[in-house]
């Protein structure tokens, strides 16, 4: 393990220049166990997997990075479909008044660029996909030990739920 790289990347707290009211990803700092569910267009469940999600302040506390792993590391060696092992990097843009976020999922060969902001008690990340369709990721029901994350895609008739995560704080860390 490269301790110099980790110490240059990881921060213990947010940078003082980040306004407290804009620390919208702070509740997620730490490690989470996941149950990930994928849905068909008719709402039926088509897949369910365990996962893990880890969040940390990075880059002098000016950004939040996460690592999202499905299935979790301890299940990957014997799993038929190591679905994803990816990361997001998010930082607050004071000019726009929103967080910029980029998701990189090398296994699925995905890169998505989002703008994120708080809407009531939810954190909403929005992007345009190919063909100008919109997609949004929503953090909701955020508590100290749990939250829900939803992936929705825009259709001609409204928003379609394609995936959700039920997250529970990993008490081992």
Number of discrete helical segments: 1
Strand order of the largest sheet: 2-3-4-5-6-7-8-9-10-11
Regarding quaternary structure, how should these chains be classified? single chain
Q: What is the number of beta strands?
A: 11
- Element string (H = helix, E = strand): HEEEEEEEEEEE
Mean pLDDT across residues: 94
Give the CATH H-level superfamily: Calycin beta-barrel core domain
Measured by DSSP, the beta-strand proportion falls in over 45%
How is this fold's topology laid out?
Layout: H1 3-9, E1 10-11, E2 30-39, E3 45-58, E4 63-70, E5 84-93, E6 98-105, E7 110-119, E8 122-128, E9 134-140, E10 146-155, E11 158-169
Description:
This protein has 173 residues and is mainly beta. It has one domain: Lipocalin (Beta Barrel). The chain is built from one helix and eleven strands. A ten-stranded antiparallel beta barrel has the order 2-3-4-5-6-7-8-9-10-11. The two termini are 19 Å apart.
Précis, in short:
The chain has 173 residues and is mainly beta. It has one helix spanning 3-9, and strands spanning 10-11, 30-39, 45-58, 63-70, 84-93, 98-105, 110-119, 122-128, 134-140, 146-155, 158-169. The protein contains one helix and eleven strands; from the N terminus they run αβββββββββββ.
